[in-house]
Amino acid sequence: xxxxxxxxxxxxxxxxxxxxxxxxxxxxxxxxxxxxxxxxxxxxxxxxxxxxxxxxxxxxxxxxxxxxxxxxxxxxxxxxxxxxxxxxxxxxxxxxxxxxxxxxxxxxxxxxxxxxxxxxxxxxxxxxxxxxxxxxxxxxxxxxxxxxxxxxxxxxxxxxxxxxxxxxxxxxxxxxxxxxxxxxxxxxxxxxxxxxxxxxxxxxxxxxxxxxxxxxxxxxxxxxxxxxxxxxxxxxxxxxxxxxxxxxxxxxxxxxxxxxxxxxxxxxxxxxxxxxxxxxxxxxxxxxxxxxxxxxxxxxxxxxxxxxxxxxxxxxxxxxxxxxxxxxxxxxxxxxxxxxxxxxxxxxxxxxxxxxxxxxxxxxxxxxxxxxxxxxxxxxxxxxxxxxxxxxxxxxxxxxxxxxxxxxxxxxxxxxxxxxxxxxxxxxxxxxxxxxxxxxxxxxxx
Length: 446
Ligand SMILES: Cc1cc2nc3c(=O)[nH]c(=O)nc-3n(C[C@H](O)[C@H](O)[C@H](O)COP(=O)(O)OP(=O)(O)OC[C@H]3O[C@@H](n4cnc5c(N)ncnc54)[C@H](O)[C@@H]3O)c2cc1C
Known about the structure:
Layout: E1 6-7, H1 10-13, E2 30-32, H2 37-50, E3 54-57, E4 74-77, E5 84-88, E6 93-97, H3 102-110, E7 114-115, H4 128-134, H5 141-144, E8 151-157, E9 163-167, H6 180-183, E10 192-199, E11 201-202, E12 206-214, H7 217-229, E13 236-241, H8 242-252, E14 262-270, H9 272-288, E15 291-296, H10 300-311, H11 313-318, E16 323-326, H12 336-350, E17 353-359, E18 364-371, H13 376-395, H14 414-418, H15 420-433
Parallel strand pairs: 2-4, 3-4
Antiparallel strand pairs: 1-2, 5-6, 6-10, 7-11, 8-9, 8-10, 12-14, 12-15, 13-14, 13-17, 16-18, 17-18
Helix pairs in contact: 7-9, 12-13
Bound molecules: flavin-adenine dinucleotide.
């Protein structure tokens, strides 16, 4: 029945009972590691016959509980299907197996002097399959978009075992419904993605990285709006709040100022002349909007050091408390300052510790509660705070998740976000593709 090695011993199953999401775990019945598409297809055919749930899994770095097993289910780990199959310089594409890490793909195309922009903070470990299934974003999303913008084609094994190829290397294609877009962001509920054809772009010739310090969060948010209003679209506009800055500095010793309310990481890339002009203008806008200091990286080493302030934010916060509950709300950029104030007030009212960081240029905030899941009273307060934050996000015209997905963590909020009609259509799509309900059951909605 099953391909390759099969794990069934309790101690071997433990690493597959959780992902990057705090306070959710469930043991599976077994874990399998297919090495080719035909094995994925055979396993799904068997699972359909036997009515066994199958949970597709990449690296398990997900932050919404998408790859948490159901009791007795089979976890299908795709990490052994990790080859970069073809870099096509003439068509600017790369064909990869789904278990390749984002970093391996980025490095493979970089060696051919090409660029794959999506760069989730987890890119060293996250798989391309996980990125497509979550439609992951990253630190360059503002200028370059998210994973969806780079998927030109994919091979998917449908829940009943049929293998389908969708898309091609054509820049334009309007033949029929755009089905591949239904599978992007489907969180392992509609099919198992086995191969992905990704669009590439030329590598930017130059890049400038800088870090601005602000005494007040409002001023940081106003600066972001002013940069966008000046019609500059940097590749990165990220921020850290006071709590996060302190944790990052304790962890990474970058030399960050500790007497400020916010720091903003900015990167612009492209033609050297444009980069020089944009970076000078951004520095000027920061000063006009009341920043207390701007540090411009002198070389690549310093640029990496400054960017690491943002890249290490989650890990730095995670050291502080036994349990780190990371939110992912996104609001229209005009509402950023108001949303940050709201989150800070909710945390203060509940006596909770929160660090806020995120993709400020995208309006995507990651309020991160530092707590302890054994403290039930505090976890109840965190749950209540999350409910208030989600309600305010929706009131401001935002979304309950900008990039981490719904999975188990956001499932109860989805009806509020989408309404009954949209949910019904989604349920019907799922039922049409997976009538037996074997693929990642219970995720996104019941
Ligand atoms: C430190 C840290 C930083 C992060 N930074 C970011 C960030 O900047 N941006 C961002 O968007 N996310 C971020 N994430 C979240 C996470 O890394 C992404 O969601 C990532 O895409 C998950 O990839 P994975 O391989 O770990 O997938 P998993 O966690 O294993 O799975 C995620 C979901 O995808 C499904 N899935 C996985 N592979 C397949 C497949 N081949 N076919 C069908 N379904 C599949 C699973 O069933 C599950 O629902 C971060 C996480 C961590 C821990």
